[in-house]
């Protein structure tokens, strides 16, 4: 252990970070010089430099993890966020729960994406669909320049390897709310998505530098867009799940600036995902697609970093430091502003396609999808930036919350869902209305049949109509799959014979539908706040909720009071549906109290209980009685929200799996 | 090169980003100078007379420190900085050195500012202990154990501060309010300008 600790000492990590920064800078500059001088050895340096930069950063992480597991409180970061009694999983996961560590995670994930790009086999004579080596060197160089800037930021203003003197005997511990398995994986996924959009960004800059796009650039770029999108989707899903199951107030989305900061690039990223298809298939919307690639990465950057500057008032309190803010803004101006300037200069000269454009076609639907998604994005952006700008310009303070976002985003989401259902059935170039209607008929029938039940089941007409549109999306995707299966030659009529991209798109659309259904269900959630002594019964959503006991409970680094609830079907004599044990946990180290929510997930509803507080009262005889304040929820379709997110991401993953060659082969035979 | 509509359209994103960027630079500058605070909230009371609030009793064992009542604001001779604080509040511990320093600096000035305190939902014993340890900067202190006066003042938490100017007709006018701890930068930016020109 001692030799290990010597090898991976914090100074080693600090040095590795500095080395990685230098390597990233070389990765950014040398291949560009090589490409300009047609010097292939210099160009070929891009790959080894990217790999060694990644190794250096992984070494830095190893040092940080060794220090954290060994409780080295001489490191400021570890003294401030860790403690001896913290479970070892969170000694690792807690490293990215603060400003410095999450920044190191950010640059390391960028290096990992670079390494992935470097390791991917390049184009050769037999595989022309692969990425050309020259383009790859260009991309690695651009990504190296991005990485170098942020590593410099990390080194100069947010160094995770700073020492602390005098060394405390124990750390201050981590915010107990963050000690949750979901939150341990949430930052890597979310950041993986944010950073992943750097690759499409590099594609766009490369195309703008050339003043023209390569013949297959949209095809090269697509897998990178999809993988970043899938990670971002999972990251947001997990974050929302955490706020539902850990924060304990029963909500899943706050419209907090930090959440919006993740939603904005997700919206533009989704638009990018769809416009790439139009560029690939029809060579239309090139300039638009380039702009989206730049905007998505710029939004990812601003989202991650504006929150840390203290400008946006958010519940996600990273240690705000205006001094860091200026450096961040400089980097944002350099990368975001610089690339938009490049776009302003070069985009007008991009070749204009002379092909016709019919509104009733796949590309027409995708264009409409792009317009709606970008309008949604603009609305969310406005709601997020309105308060600070109002204050700056007019000195007025105000807050923009759920009422604004509900009133603006729902009217935009409804047409988006309607278009989603139609788009899959539309062919490229020109659709014929007389052929379209029969294709859509089954899904239309299913949706029409559900009208009465929907208005009966959902609490408001708005929720019911939104749910109907979600059902329309799901049924349209399923019917489309069935119709395409039928169109296959008779002997080959098997599900796996369908093209993988079709499966991926259908799954992603079904995921959206499932999430929207979950949101509509949650509109009808019921809750009750009760004050109860053991033995008290309460009725909620046609169930009997009984508080049977209040007990003490000892955790590894907390003390807890546990309420035992028995939920019975119908009344006090009905069959037992669930036993829930919500807790109040007191973490003495931080002096912080957290609620540990108890949730029973059922297919169609969540039963959710939170213990708010427990107080002791004495009756005239001097006997103590404990009274608990409990919040009980019945949340219809709650888990569908996150299930849908997982299905969407699965669609993305499915798209990325390598196509089976046998399949391509047999498809070729069928065409012949 | 001829400028076309395409050029104009392609320049729009960059122009928008430049506008946003300029705004962010101003905000960061303001954050550093202390005159921009995204966490500030609008109390309905700013610019209005001191609200009606129940008379607050003083600390039991501190005869030199009178309590706080609505009438005290009617006969104001100088501006008052009213602090809402509690002994259980960590940010209050952080801001107390500044308030102490402010209290010392005010003693020798010709245009003094009175520092009054409102102790929010606190035990008298712990509040007294706290003042003893930190050194009492206040010349009046009201104990708001039920938190009723805090509601009348529109307080959302501790610490908060109000600047009240003398106004003979209405009995004190609130000219500035801050949620959160007070620092020297905030004092210089917001409170000093109000004090110029008062006798």
TrEMBL record, chain A:
Principal cellular location given in the protein's record: membrane
InterPro entries to which the protein is assigned, alphabetical: CcmF_C, Cyt_c_assembly, Cyt_c_biogenesis, Cyt_c_biogenesis_CcmF
A single MF term (Gene Ontology): lyase activity
Residues spanning the membrane: 12-33, 45-67, 103-120, 140-162, 189-209, 221-242, 262-279, 288-306, 326-345, 366-389, 409-428, 440-458, 464-483, 503-524, 640-659
Membrane topology designation: Multi-pass membrane protein
Keywords in alphabetical order: Cell inner membrane, Cell membrane, Cytochrome c-type biogenesis, Lyase, Membrane, Transmembrane, Transmembrane helix
UniProt keyword Lyase present: yes
Cytochrome c assembly protein domain segment(s): 96-309
Pfam families noted in UniProt: CcmF_C, Cytochrom_C_asm
Superkingdom of origin organism: Bacteria
PANTHER family, per database record: CYTOCHROME C ASSEMBLY PROTEIN-RELATED, CYTOCHROME C-TYPE BIOGENESIS PROTEIN CCMF
Family: Belongs to the CcmF/CycK/Ccl1/NrfE/CcsA family.
Protein name per Swiss-Prot or TrEMBL: Heme lyase CcmF/NrfE family subunit
Species: Bombella dulcis
Source species taxonomy: Bacteria, Pseudomonadati, Pseudomonadota, Alphaproteobacteria, Acetobacterales
TrEMBL record, chain B:
Span of domain Thioredoxin: 44-196
InterPro entries per record: AhpC/TSA, Thioredoxin-like_sf, Thioredoxin_CS, Thioredoxin_domain, Thioredoxin_ResA/DsbE_sf
Keyword annotations: Cytochrome c-type biogenesis, Disulfide bond, Redox-active center
Transmembrane segments: none
Subcellular location: Cell envelope
Protein source organism: Bombella dulcis
Tagged with keyword Mitochondrion: no
Pfam families: AhpC-TSA
Keyword Protein biosynthesis included in the entry's annotation: no
Name of the protein in its database record: Redoxin domain-containing protein
């Amino acid at each position: 252990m001692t030799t290990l600790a010597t090898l991976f000492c914090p100074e080693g990590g600090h040095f590795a970070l500095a080395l990685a920064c230098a390597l990233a800078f070389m990765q950014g500059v040398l291949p560009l010089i090589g490409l300009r001088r047609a010097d292939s050895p210099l160009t070929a340096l891009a790959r080894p430099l990217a790999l060694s930069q990644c190794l250096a950063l992984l070494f830095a992480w190893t040092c940080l993890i060794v220090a954290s597991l060994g409780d080295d409180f001489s490191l400021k970061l570890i003294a401030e966020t860790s403690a001896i009694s913290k479970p070892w999983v969170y000694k690792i996961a807690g490293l990215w729960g603060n400003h410095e560590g999450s920044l190191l995670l950010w640059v390391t994930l960028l290096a990992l994406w670079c390494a992935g790009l470097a390791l991917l086999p390049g184009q050769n004579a037999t595989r022309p669909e692969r990425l050309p080596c020259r383009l790859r060197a260009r991309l690695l160089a651009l990504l190296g320049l991005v990485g170098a800037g942020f590593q410099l930021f990390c080194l100069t203003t947010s160094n995770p390897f700073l020492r602390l003197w005098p060394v405390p005997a124990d750390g201050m511990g981590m915010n107990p709310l963050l000690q949750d398995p979901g939150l341990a994986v949430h930052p890597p996924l979310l950041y993986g998505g944010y950073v992943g959009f750097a690759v499409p960004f590099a594609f766009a800059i490369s195309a703008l530098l050339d003043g023209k796009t390569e013949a297959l650039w949209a095809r090269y770029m697509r897998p990178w867009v999809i993988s970043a999108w899938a990670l971002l989707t999972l990251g947001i899903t997990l974050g929302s799940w955490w706020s539902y199951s850990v924060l304990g107030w029963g909500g899943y989305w706050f419209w907090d600036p930090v959440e919006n900061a993740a939603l904005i690039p997700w919206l533009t990223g989704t638009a990018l995902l769809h416009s790439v298809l139009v560029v690939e298939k029809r060579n239309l919307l090139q300039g638009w697609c380039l702009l989206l690639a730049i905007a998505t990465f710029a939004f990812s950057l601003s989202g991650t970093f504006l929150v840390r500057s203290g400008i946006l008032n958010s519940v996600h309190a990273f240690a705000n430091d205006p001094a860091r803010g200026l450096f961040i803004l400089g980097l944002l101006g350099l990368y975001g502003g610089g690339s938009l300037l490049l776009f302003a200069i070069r985009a007008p000269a991009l070749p204009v396609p002379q092909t016709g454009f019919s509104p009733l076609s796949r590309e027409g639907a995708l264009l409409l999808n792009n317009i709606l998604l970008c309008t949604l994005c603009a609305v969310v952006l406005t709601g997020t930036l309105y308060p600070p700008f109002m204050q700056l310009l007019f000195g007025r303070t105000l807050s923009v919350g759920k009422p604004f976002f509900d009133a603006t985003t729902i009217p935009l989401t409804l047409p988006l869902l309607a278009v989603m259902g139609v788009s899959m059935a539309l062919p490229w170039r020109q659709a014929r209305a007389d052929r379209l209607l029969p294709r859509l008929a089954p899904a239309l029938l299913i949706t029409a049949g559900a009208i009465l039940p929907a208005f009966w089941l959902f609490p408001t007409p708005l929720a019911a109509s939104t749910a109907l549109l979600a059902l329309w999306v799901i049924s349209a995707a399923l019917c489309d799959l069935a119709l395409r299966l039928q169109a296959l030659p008779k002997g080959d009529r098997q599900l796996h014979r369908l093209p993988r991209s079709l499966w991926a798109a259908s799954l992603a659309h079904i995921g959206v539908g499932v999430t929207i259904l979950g949101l509509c269900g949650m509109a009808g959630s019921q809750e009750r706040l009760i004050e109860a002594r053991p033995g008290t019964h309460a009725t909620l959503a046609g169930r009997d909720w009984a508080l049977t006991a209040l007990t003490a409970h000892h955790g590894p680094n907390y003390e807890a009071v546990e309420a035992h609830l028995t939920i019975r079907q119908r009344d006090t004599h009905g069959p037992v549906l669930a036993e829930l044990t919500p807790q109040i946990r007191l973490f003495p180290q931080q002096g912080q109290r957290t609620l540990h929510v108890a949730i029973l997930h059922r297919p169609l509803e969540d039963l959710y209980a939170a213990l708010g507080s427990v107080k002791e009262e004495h009756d005239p005889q001097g006997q103590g009685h404990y009274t608990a304040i409990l919040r009980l929820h019945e949340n219809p379709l709650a888990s569908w929200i996150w299930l849908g997110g997982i299905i969407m991401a699965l669609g993305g993953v499915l798209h990325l799996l390598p196509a089976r060659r046998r399949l391509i082969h047999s498809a070729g035979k069928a065409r012949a | 090169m001829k400028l076309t509509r395409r050029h104009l359209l392609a320049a729009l994103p960059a122009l928008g980003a430049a506008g946003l960027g300029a705004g962010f630079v101003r905000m960061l500058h303001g954050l550093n100078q202390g005159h921009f605070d995204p966490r500030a909230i609008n109390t309905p009371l700013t610019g209005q007379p001191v609200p009606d609030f129940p008379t607050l009793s003083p600390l039991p064992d501190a005869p030199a420190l009178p309590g706080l009542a609505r009438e005290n604001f009617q006969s104001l001779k100088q501006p008052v900085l009213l602090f809402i604080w509690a002994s259980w509040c960590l940010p209050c511990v952080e801001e107390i050195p500044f308030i102490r320093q402010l209290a010392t600096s005010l003693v020798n000035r010709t245009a003094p500012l009175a520092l009054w305190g409102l102790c929010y939902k606190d035990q008298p014993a712990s509040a007294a202990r706290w003042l003893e340890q930190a050194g009492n900067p206040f010349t009046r202190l009201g104990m708001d154990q039920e938190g009723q006066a805090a509601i009348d003042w529109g307080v959302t938490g501790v610490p908060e501060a109000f600047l009240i100017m003398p106004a003979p007709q209405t009995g004190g006018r609130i000219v500035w309010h801050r949620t959160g701890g007070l620092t020297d930068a905030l004092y210089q930016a917001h409170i000093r300008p109000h004090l110029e020109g008062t006798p």
